[in-house]
Amino acid sequence: MSGGSWVPVPEGSDFSLHNLPYGIFRRAGEAARIGVAIGDQVLDLDALWREGLLDGGRKLPEGVFAHGSLNRFLSLGRPAWQSVRAGVLELLDGHSHAIRDVPGLAERALIERSEAEMLLPVEIGDFVDFYSSLEHASNMGAMLRPGGEPLLPNWRHLPVGYHGRAGSVVVSGTPVVRPWGQIVEDDGPPGFGPTGMLDFELEVGFIAGAPSAFGASVPIEQAPEHIFGCVLVNDWSARDIQRWENAPLGPFLGKSFMTSISPWVVTLDALAPYFVPGPAQTPPVLDYLRSDRDWAIDLDLEVTLASSTMIERDMDAEVISRTNFRTLYWNIAQQLAHVTSNGARLRTGDLFASGTVSGPGPRAYGSMIELTRSGERPIVLPDGSERTWLKDGDTIAMHGVCGHAEGVPPVGFGKVRGAVVPAP
Amino acid sequence: MSGGSWVPVPEGSDFSLHNLPYGIFRRAGEAARIGVAIGDQVLDLDALWREGLLDGGRKLPEGVFAHGSLNRFLSLGRPAWQSVRAGVLELLDGHSHAIRDVPGLAERALIERSEAEMLLPVEIGDFVDFYSSLEHASNMGAMLRPGGEPLLPNWRHLPVGYHGRAGSVVVSGTPVVRPWGQIVEDDGPPGFGPTGMLDFELEVGFIAGAPSAFGASVPIEQAPEHIFGCVLVNDWSARDIQRWENAPLGPFLGKSFMTSISPWVVTLDALAPYFVPGPAQTPPVLDYLRSDRDWAIDLDLEVTLASSTMIERDMDAEVISRTNFRTLYWNIAQQLAHVTSNGARLRTGDLFASGTVSGPGPRAYGSMIELTRSGERPIVLPDGSERTWLKDGDTIAMHGVCGHAEGVPPVGFGKVRGAVVPAP
C-alpha cells in the first residue's frame, strides 16, 4: 500500500496515516494535551509544536496543543485544521525524517496508546440529539402508537431533535451508574428506584468547530466550515423513567444521566472519501435543507455486548447489532442547517448526535428496545444468559469503520465502551 | 429605616443594602468584572479586593472578581458566598468608613449604573426549563387537548422539564431577532418563513453555584449548598414553529433562538426573608422531593409591553400581566433534587428556569398565548393598537420585586428587557 507511515500501523488498525483523528490524552503525572492517533501510538502535537515542526508558514496561537480540550484548536476554523492535518501527514509520511532527525523526539512525541489515558476530547457546548433514522423512528412509533402511523407528520419535513444534557457527556470507559428515577408499574402511582430497563443507543455525532454568529443561520453549503469531525455516541437510556416523564416536553432524566462518546474525533477531511448519496427524501425537503453535495457517510457500525461472566471467561463479546450510518435519513449538514435556521448560534464544541442508527432488519437495530421488541424477545448470549435490558456488569462497546472506498485504507473510529455498575 | 448604606439608595430602588445582587459589568474601554448593585451604582468588587478590603480572614483566589463571568466565584461554594456578602454588607453599612478612608477609592469603586454595560452574569452550563406552574400547564393543556384532562398523569408527581439551548441564553437588552422556521398553515405542507406567532414567557430561574459529583444525587436538604441565586427569565417562543416541531421530542427551534435573563443575580441569602410555604401538593410527593423548609418565594412579577409608537411618544409601557412567583407548584429545591435524582451532575452556571409563571385569572397569565387565548382575544394597547402576538418594535420588560416581608426593605430583581427586531 502506498502512502504508509514510518510509524508502524498494524494490519486492521483503525488509525492509518489516512485517518489521523484528534484526541486529548494524558500520561501518568503529566498535563493533558492534544494528540493524534497513529497505529498503536499517540502523536503528541504539543511536543512537535514546541520543536517548531507544526507551524509551517501559518502562525498558530502559542501552546494551542497544550490544552485539556480541543476547543481552542477547533475555534481556529478550517484553514488551521487543514494546515495542521497537512503538517502531520507530512511528518508521519514514510519519506519524512523530520521527527526522527531530532534526537530523542520520536521517543518523546510518540506514546504507546496503552500508556495514554484518553479524556473527553471537547468541552461540550450544547448537545443536540436527533431522531434521524427512518427505521428507528418507525420502530419506536410502532411501539408507542400501535395501529397508528409510525411516523408523525413532521418527521419527513425536518430533522426532529431535542437538546440533551451537555454536562452528562463523558468519554468512553466511564462507568455507567444505573440511574434511579420515577417508575410506574401496572398503572399504579410512581415509585422511586433504580431503572429496570437500562438500554443503549448506537449513534454517531459531529462536533462543531468554528462558531457562528447570533441571529445568522448557517447555509447548508457552509457546513464544512463549521463541522470539525465525528465521534461514536452511546446515548444510554432508562426506558421506564423515559416512558413516564416523556409527555409533553420530551426525553429528560431517562437520558440525562450519561452519554458516552469515543475519544478520537475523526475529521471531515479523513471522512471525505466515504461521503456517499443518502436515502432519497420524499417529499422533497425545503430549500434550506437541500445540498448539492453528498453528505451520507459510508460507515459500518457494530455493537457488542459482553456480560461480566463472558469477560471473566475471556470470551469474545457478542455482536448484537450491525448497521451502516449511510442509511440515516437526515444527514449531518441538514442537521446543522436546521439547528441554526432560527438564528441560534453555534459554539465551538457543540455536539450533534444522530439519534439511534437502526438499519433495515432486526439484526441492524441500534437499541435493546428495538432488538428485543421492548423486552418480548430476549437476546441469548454465548454464556447462555438472556437479556431484555442491560444487567449490572454488562459492557456495551460500539465500533465504527469506513472501509469501502476504493484504493483508500479503512478509516476507523475506535470504540466507545461502557460497563454498567449497580445503582448506588 | 435602620441598616442604611452610606451610598444613597433612592426610594423604591430594587437594590438596597439588603439585596446586594451580583452581576458582570464593563465600563467603556475596561475589562469586564464582578460588581454588586447598590442604589443607582455598581460596586466594583475587584477594586475592593485589590485594596485588601474583601479578603477578611478567608483566602479568596487571586483575582477572583476580575473575571468576565461569576463562575469562578460561584464555584467556591456557600462559605465563600456568605463571607463575601458579609464583607460587602459591612463595607456599605452607614457606619463604615473603610472605603471612604482610602483616598479616591469610593470614586474608583462606585460606578454609575448608567455608565456600566451589563453582560451575561454567568457562563451557562446546562439550561433546564421546567413547566412548574399549575395554571400555565393547565391553560396549555386545555388549549392543546381540548375536552381532555388539562394535566397529564405525571404532572403532579414530578417537575416536568426539558433541556433548552444554553448557548442561546443572553443578557437583558439583547435584541430579539424574529426567527425563521418551518410553519404549517391550514394543514398544508410546511413553508419556511419568519414566525407570525412570537411570544414571551415570564419565568424565574436559579443558578447553580457549587457543582455536584457524577452519579451522586443532591438531597433536597442540600439545595442551599448548590443554589447561588435567582434571575428573571424571558423564554422567547415562536408558537407556530413550536406547534409543528413539538411531537414527539418536545420544544426545540421554537424556543432555541433566544432566552433572555436579567443581569443581576439575587442571592438566596437576600431572598431568605421571602421564603414562604408553597401551594399544597396533592397527591403527596415522593420522599426525594420532600423538604422541611419553605421554598416558595414571595416575589411579585410584572410584565409590560411597549410598542415602538408608545416609546416614541414617551408613553408608559402597558402592564399586561401581574402575578406572584409563590404560586409555583414545584419549587426550586424540588427542581434541583429532581434533575440530579438520576445521578446527573450539576455544573457551576447551570440555569434552571421555572417555566411560564401564570397565576389564577386572565390578568395573571405569563405569556401571550394565554393572555389572548391563542390569539382569540387581542390585548388593546394605550396607543389603540391590538396585539395577539408580538410585533417588530415591541419591547417586553419583566420586573420582579420581593416586597412583603415585615421590617425588611424590598429586594428587587431589576428588569429583563428585549425589543423585537425584524427577521433578517
Structural write-up:
The structure is a homodimer of 424-residue chains. Chain A is α+β, with helices and mostly antiparallel strands and 424 residues long. Helix content of chain A is 18%, strand content 26%. The first copy, chain A, has helices at 45-50, 71-74, 78-92, 105-109, 134-144, 223-226, 239-245, 253-256, 268-271, 308-312, 332-340, 368-371; strands at residues 22-27, 33-38, 41-44, 110-112, 116-119, 127-130, 161-164, 169-171, 176-177, 180-183, 191-194, 198-199, 202-208, 227-234, 237-238, 259-261, 266-267, 275-276, 296-297, 300-306, 318-324, 351-353, 379-380, 386-387, 395-402, 411-421. The termini of chain A are far apart.
Brief summary:
With 424 residues, chain A is α+β, with helices and mostly antiparallel strands.
What key attributes describe this structure?
homodimer; 424 residues; alpha+beta; SH3 type barrels; Fumarylacetoacetate hydrolase, domain 2; eight-stranded mixed sheet
Q: CATH class of the largest domain in chain A, anyone?
A: Alpha Beta
How many distinct domains of chain A? 2
Kindly state the percentage of residues in helix of chain A: 10-25%
| Major pleated sheet of chain A | 8 strands, mixed
CATH fold assignment of the largest domain in chain A: Fumarylacetoacetate hydrolase, domain 2
Spell out the CATH superfamily of the largest domain in chain A. Answer: Fumarylacetoacetase-like, C-terminal domain
Greatest chain-chain contact: A-B, 63 and 63 residues
Quaternary state of the chains: homodimer
* E-strand count of chain A: 26
Low-confidence stretches of chain A: none
**Which class of secondary structure composition applies to the elements of chain A?**
alpha+beta
* Mean of all residue-level pLDDT scores of chain A: 95
As a whole number of angstroms, the C-alpha radius of gyration of chain A is 22 Å
User: What is the terminal-to-terminal distance of chain A?
Assistant: 52 Å
Percent of residues in β-strands of chain A: 25-35%
Instruction: Report the CATH architecture of the largest domain in chain A.
Output: Alpha-Beta Complex
